Amino acid sequence: MSGFGEKLRDSAVFNFSGAVVMVVDDSPFSRELTAEALRGFGAQIRYACSTAEEALDIIRDHAIDLLLVDCEMPGMDGCDMVRWIRHSGLEPNAYVPIIMTAGHVRRSKVGTVRDCGANFLITKPFSAASLLERLVWVARDNRPFLEAGDYKGPDRRRAKAKPLKEGERRADMIARAKREAELGLSEDEAELEAVAAELEAEVAAMGRH
After folding, report:
1. How many angstroms separate the CA atoms of 30 and 22, rounded?
2. 66-70/21-24 β-pairing
3. Is there a contact between 13 and 1 (Cβ–Cβ < 8 Å)?
4. Residue 142, SS3?
5. What's the rounded Cα separation, in Å, for the pair 133 and 127?
6. What's this model's pTM, rounded to 2 decimal places?
7. Residue 105, φ and ψ in degrees, nearest 5
8. DSSP-derived pairing of the beta strands 21-24 and 45-49
9. Each residue's pLDDT tens digit, 136-186
10. Residue partners of 134: CB distance under 8 A and separation at least 6
11. In 3D, which of 110, 99, 113 has the Cα closest to residue 37?
12. C-alpha to C-alpha distances, 2 to 7, 17, 18, nearest whole angstrom
């Protein structure tokens, strides 16, 4: 069994039951939906916070294995919170895997999430299966942490998307590339804007059903 603190083999079996998980979201409904999704594969929320300030009080004194943070909250927003954590010097929390959540993904938000030091962005509402996919991606992520100017976080540079195996369908490759680009992992701002626009269209389409 593997957790977030270990380097993972491709064949690793994931056991999230022992992970110290914190969810920060000002919406009680969103916190409960996230908790339900996590429970779907054995993970439990140790800390559920409605504000960034409340979360940081805990982070100063307790080690966290995984952090899910809503982008937009009153007071200190999620991106400012992540930026504070990355520059805090707290061990090991300055390097905790962070997944940001957002109900609406604007072009500017993709770049802001990329630049604050988060590992990944996932749009709400999300299923347990899609959240698990992101968690496995983050758990396998072995990018080094960088400090360059005001930025501190996982290396944002990624190779251009390529098929993982012979015979991969173009649709699969595009879907994978979009997932990798949700956090703005490409240096190409035009590509970021295109991905954000597609995500906006997807969220709007979901709202119409």
Report:
1. 13
2. parallel
3. yes
4. coil
5. 10
6. 0.70
7. -110, 100
8. parallel
9. 888 877 788 888 888 999 887 654 444 444 555 545 555 555 555 554 444
10. 99, 120, 122
11. 99
12. 8, 10, 10
Q: Are 152 and 86 in contact (CB under 8 A)?
A: yes
Residue identified by tokens 């983050």 is 138
Which residue bears the tokens 């509402």? 125
Six token digits for residue 198: 């597609």
Strand residues in the chain grouped as ranges (E): 21-24, 45-49, 66-70, 98-102, 120-123, 145-148, 151-154
Q: What is the dihedral of CA 186, 124, 120, 70, to 10 degrees?
A: 120
Query: How many residues in total does the chain contain?
Result: 209
pLDDT digits (tens, 9 = 90+) for 114-130: 889 999 888 888 888 88
The pairing of strands 151-154 and 45-49 is: unpaired
Please write the tens of the pLDDT for every residue from 49-87. Answer: 999 999 999 999 999 999 999 998 999 999 999 999 999
The more confidently predicted of residues 108 and 208 is 108
Residue with tokens 């994931």: 14
